Each structure stands twice: as structure tokens, then as C-alpha cells.
């Protein structure tokens, strides 16, 4: 069936480092793609989204580009901060009454 | 505006007991979703309501799980009888548009079955 695959981590980086979290998906058709973030003790928050090929979602310095040819939606940030420490989930939605399909989540730890 | 709320935040029950989880969506959101994350695995979709109607419950694990949304407001998810493999975090989400765009998630209920 359709799935979302992302690096699981934990990923540990120093403050101001460059971040990439890879995400690939399988799907029939062209799903909408999302990155959600879960900070400690909180619920999932939508970080960014893209609804069609070549769209770039961006928010809080994070970016991800919908790549149809490689079925990918990698998350990037040029300079991470300690406050970015959280679990990041890649997800897709294929339409209709279905809910979101999530990856396993990537635990990101930023050290000062 | 209040976000999605879930109650309780944590529940510990014994195998064979019954537990009821509650979700209050954002006011005015017709779409309500339940998801579950079992330790070490993906967050899995369980079911979707539009107002009080179930749209898709293909993700419900088995008939020990019963979800309701009477009156199209809050929703409950009952597990009866609970089994060890039901342990995990149960998330609720709501949205004002049809489908997956802009789903707002609650903090989750952590269920532990011993």
C-alpha cells in the first residue's frame, strides 16, 4: 500500500548547522505533502505543506519542495536552533475520506 | 480560540477493562479524525467523521474499538475489552475543510494496557 518513509534518527546537530531530513513516499496519483512537528509535551503542529509538484512549502526557516520525479519531500533548514529540537513527521494525503499517512517520525536534537 | 483538546492525557488500565477517550475539536470544525501511534511505529489513521457521520473507518483495528460523535460535536473512542497491543498514543485532529488540508491535532492520550 501507499507509504511514507523518513530517516528515523535521532539526528543530533550543533546549533547553526544545516539540517536535512529525507522523506520519500509511494502513492497512486499526486498526493498533498506535509511536514508536522511535535515539540515536547505538545500535539502535532503543521509546519509546512505543498499540494502539487514543484511547490515549495516554507515556514519558520524550514523549506521542503515537492519533487514528483523522485517522489520526495525533504525538509531543510539553513541554521538550526536549540528550540528546533522536536520530532518531525512527514505525511501525505491522497484525497477523499482518508486521513493522513505518516512516516515514523525523526527525533531532532540540537545541541548548543 | 481553543485548540483540539483530549481527555484524559494518560490512562493506565488492565487487560480486559474498558476505556473511553474523548476528543473536543475546534469549534465549527465538521471534520474529525482519530489516529494512533503504537510505540516505534507510524501514526496510523483510524477513522474520519464529517459531523456525526463516519466517512471512513477502514483503519479501525477490530470490533473492540467503537467511535462515536453524537450531535457532531465531541467524539469518543471506546476500547472494550482492552488488550496489551492497544497501548499507544491516540491522537485526535479536526479540520474545517474536507480532507487532509490543515488538520489541527490535539496533544494525544497515552493509553497503557498492563
**SS-based class of chain A:** mainly beta
* Low-pLDDT ranges of chain A: none
Largest sheet of chain A: 6 strands, mixed
Q: What proportion of the residues of chain B is helical, as a percent range?
A: under 10%
Structural commentary:
The complex is a heterodimer of chains A (112) and B (114). With 112 residues, chain A is an all-beta fold. Helices cover 0% and strands 50% of the residues of chain A. Chain A has strands at residues 3-6, 11-14, 19-21, 23-26, 32-38, 44-50, 56-59, 62-65, 75-77, 86-93, 101-102, 106-111. In chain A, the strands form three sheets. In chain A, strands 2, 5, 6, 10, 11 and 12 form a six-stranded mixed beta sheet that branches. Chain A has a four-stranded antiparallel beta sheet with strand order 3-9-8-7, with no helix packed on it. A two-stranded antiparallel ribbon of chain A has the order 1-4. In chain A, strand 7 and strand 8 form a beta hairpin. By secondary structure, chain B is mostly beta strands. In chain B, the strands form two sheets. In chain B, strands 2, 4, 5, 6, 9, 10 and 11 form a seven-stranded mixed beta sheet that branches. In chain B, strands 1-3-8-7 form a four-stranded antiparallel beta sheet, with no helix packed on it. In chain B, a hairpin with a 5-residue loop joins strand 4 (31-37) and strand 5 (43-50). The radius of gyration of chain B is 13 Å and the shape is globular. In chain B, 35% of the residues are buried. Classes of the chains: A mainly beta (112), B mainly beta (114). Chains A and B meet through strand 5, strand 6, strand 10 and strand 11 of A and strand 5 and strand 10 of B.
